[in-house]
Amino acid sequence: MILHRRYILLIIGLCTTLAMLAQPRLRRPEIYVGAHAGVMASTMTFKPAVADIDIMQSPLSVNGGLVFRYAGHKVCAIQAEINYMQRGWKETVAISEASTADYVRQLDYIQVPLLMHLYFGKERFRGFFNLGPQIGYCFRDIAIYPSQYEMVISSAPHHQPIDKPFDWGLAGGLGCYYRTKKIGLFQLEARFNYSMGTIYNNRKVDYFSQSNAMNLSINFAYMWEIKID
């Protein structure tokens, strides 16, 4: 399964390169730097499944970071980012027949996507697609729950500290932006992130064969054009 995922990333990388090389070059490249931030819904996919995790109750969190975009060809650009992202999940844990508790898991990541940016539209107002691979590292793992339920909650396999802080996967986005003449670019994007790496070991002897993150975010960005004469 891991081998198949690597093939997927390789194919996307090759398609990205070929698509960019096939486009006519711009007379003057468009270079942008800026920042973006937004809200994100996050959940996990476990196999064997964890029945108490409801994707509709996913906790809202924040994400944001720095953006660099280089467009040397028409309709096609490369975009690199350095982001902070709060992942995790929320579940209702049965403590007894008459008592439940909310368990919230927060995983804080530094994430680096490298995206193909395809844009269309007029000079000032454009729509776009983003697609490409991403890597990340979890630097903080926090569990939030009532302290009196610690003995019950800590016994669950998916409540243990994560085994794999390094992450990799795919990101795809859809949005639009407006380019002003003097004060930069304003952008709105909806993005989906799918983690192909697992947070727990997935060998045959381990409990989980799958423990992947999924995220959906809405981000606003402001970017400034660097003009090269």
What would you say this structure looks like, in words?
With 229 residues, the protein is mostly beta strands. It has one domain (2-226): Beta Barrel (Porin). Helix content is 10%, strand content 62%. The chain contains two helices and eight strands; from the N terminus they run H-E-E-E-E-E-H-E-E-E. The protein has an eight-stranded antiparallel barrel with strand order 1-2-3-4-5-6-7-8. The mean pLDDT is 84.
Topology of this protein?
Blueprint: H1 2-21, E1 25-47, E2 60-73, E3 76-96, E4 99-121, E5 125-144, H2 150-153, E6 166-179, E7 185-195, E8 210-226
Antiparallel strand pairs: 1-2, 1-8, 2-3, 3-4, 4-5, 5-6, 6-7, 7-8
* Sheet/helix structural class: mainly beta
Count of the domains: 1
CATH class: Mainly Beta
Tell me the number of helical segments per DSSP (H or I, 4 or more residues long): 2
The oligomeric state of the chains shown is: single chain
Strand proportion, as a percent range, falls in over 45%
The number of E-state strands comes to 8
Outline the biggest β-sheet.
8 strands, antiparallel, barrel
Order of helices and strands: HEEEEEHEEE
What CATH architecture would you give? Beta Barrel
The average pLDDT score comes to: 84
Distance between the termini: 49 Å
